[in-house]
Amino acid sequence: MPHPLTDDLETLARPVVVAAHLEVQSVEVLAHRIPLTVVVRVQRADGTDVNLDECAAVSGPLAEAIEASGLLTMAYVLEVSSPGIGEDLHSDRDFVSFRGFPVEVLRRDADGAEVRRTGLLLGRDDQVVQLNERGRILRIPRDDVLRVRLTQAPPDS
């Protein structure tokens, strides 16, 4: 379940990131860390990764915007980074860009237990996430999917 401030922080971050000619890929609030950590992942409009200088160019102005907004009244750490490999897929563009790539899908089964499946991503539509698991096509209902994450190596390699 996302932190209650995630949407507000993303709304705040978007114009700062756009001013740096980048896009917000995701915003995550890690409230279990001490101090609280705000992770903002940015990418170029073409979906390619950003470099350290681009992250630094966003970090300063974004920290100032967060301070000025008063959204966070407690101590926090701001991390601005590139999505990179091993990250979650969120947008439709992510699912198109990484079609054929090895992924891990975390889903909830009928009993409420979490189940991990790995395979090659075939795609996503309004109803299902499709995965090729060792030659077998899996159609996992989107409502059951908790996370889809890129993995470094093909499954069972």
Automatic annotation (TrEMBL):
Residues 13-85 form the Ribosome maturation factor RimP N-terminal domain. InterPro entries: Ribosome_maturation_RimP, RimP_C_sf, RimP_N, RimP_N_sf. GO terms for biological process: ribosomal small subunit assembly; translation. Keywords: Cytoplasm, Ribosome biogenesis. One of its GO terms (cellular component) is cytosol. Transmembrane segments: none annotated. Pfam families: RimP_N. It is found in: Cytoplasm. SUPFAM superfamilies: YhbC-like, C-terminal domain, YhbC-like, N-terminal domain. It comes from the Bacteria. The keyword Repressor does not apply. Its main location: cytoplasm. Belongs to the RimP family. Required for maturation of 30S ribosomal subunits. PANTHER family: RIBOSOME MATURATION FACTOR RIMP (PTHR33867:SF1). This is Ribosome maturation factor RimP. It comes from Cyanobium gracile (strain ATCC 27147 / PCC 6307). The gene is rimP.
